Amino acid sequence: MNKKKEEKQMSPEEIVKYFKDEFKTKIKYSEIKKRTTGLKKKEFVNIWMRIDKSIFKQYIKKLCDLTFPHLAVVSGNDLGETIELVYNFSIYYGKHLQEISLNVGVELPKSKPEIETVCDLIPGALITEREKQEMLGIKIKGIPDNRRLFLPDDFPKNVYPWRKDEQTKKEIEKLYKNLHEGANKK
Amino acid sequence: MSNATTKTTYQLPIGPIHPALKEPVMFKFEIDGEKIVDVDVELGHVHRAIEWTGMRRNPIQIIYLAERICGICSFVHPMAFCRAVENACDIEVPERADYLRVVHGELERICSHLLWAGVAAHEIGFDTVLFLTWEMRERALDLTEYLTGNRVTKAILTIGGVRRDIKKEHMPKINESLNYLKNGFEKLRHVFLDDKTVKMRSQNCGILTYDDALKLCAVGPTTRASGVKKDVRADQPYAAYSDLDVDYTTPDKLTGEVNGDVYDRIIVRLLEVKQSIELIEKAIDKMPAGDLVSEPKIPKLLNYIKKTAGEGVGRDEAPRGEVIHYVKFDGENEHPYTWKVRASTYANILPWIPMLKGEQIADIPIVAASTDPCMSCTNRVAVLNNQDNKKYLLNKEHLHQLSIQKTRRLMR
Predict the structure, then answer these.
(1) ipTM score of complex
(2) How many domains does chain B have?
């Protein structure tokens, strides 16, 4: 990655069109939210998108072609049958008040929650991908470092704290009821 | 030849009691003689399950929980959370509140940067400078207490505004404190930036290149010191920052070049102290009259949030860099369906690795401290970690002594 190229900046509408032209119906949903602030009422743009998991990696590549994005974090929701990951990017930073926040959601079936890594394109994604693996129980295919991040080694396997199903609730309850020294030792 | 006897590198664990700040993080260094060959960072020692707890609280309760994510950034976390809720539920913020948010945010940045400057000086053995910076910080904290009622957990924010006003009778004390800080700043600038020994210890040390900073998604002064223009206050319009013309602080403003070393990170933070003092003055000067909060009745506000389904992200420039909160409401429950917090140190973990590789053991404290790490923010959710480190254990005092000895050697 060389110095950031001086790229032409697209408007939020153009950005949505840029992805829709490429991926057509695989972009399931898109919305542009604008809010103003301060006395001068300057506008700030949030773009929300939901995409199909089959085009996920191509989408990120296409985004990197546009401009190198800053991946702030990957958020995750347990929606019952599926697990949704929301990739919170910001683009066009470094230009005064021109930043656009781009939030891309992708749903994974709970029976097979797998997604490709983006570490090859954005190396800074490693920490947040490791966290999603242990907290939501998804599998990141091709992740360069497969270890846990925050959870200790003696934390039970197959318990993912951010899941909302009954099974997880029971397991977590068991954990904090036994939370005193030595209770979880093998 | 057997491997056991010919291995030239050895492992050196440092932590979880950490030499840079008084917070736990574990480094595992691969050492060849004095040189660091490889680094691995282990986290999770103070994971307190704050997000998990928050998902069982209502948004007003979460503000005060978010304040306790970090002992220093007790304004920026609730700020990012409030912005996320305001974005998710379309809640307006009155203009006066936008300006008041700037004043409190910048006051916190001054306290945080001065605290860091003192710690950094302590790491290389300049305890006199530690006392100088903390004396200044004390005055900034006094002002915080005067305006909010508390030194640290300020409880100043609420969803849709702020809770306390700045009135005319507050002005003499504010002006007096700001003048004191301005004078103190000149002294500090001279002590840090013109001192030969500080330069010797910090120049060409712990380098983070522009490409690495960009690729590893570093944030805050850490990335700006490498020349990446990234500052939420300047990047996107929020609070009253868009009216106040915030500029990116990069080291070339002072020296004309960007090296991305520890010295550059000192420059960026010091210049930002000055920038913050100016921003407070500008914000107070231009502050319009008006309401403090758009919906003062909390039950009404909570009821509205409960009925609104939506998601939002809120970003804020903390002293250490961008903080982002994500919230999702399902339209049925009062508590958020999801709350995700990403503190700035979380994004500055990976940049440590290129910074520390190739440096000497005695440089570990100052290089690690140069990103201003805040582990409590980063590890929000965990249980205890009972890792046994039986091999070499270099304790914090010993490492600190090594760092001081190196400074003394250079001064000879």
Answers:
(1) 0.90
(2) 2
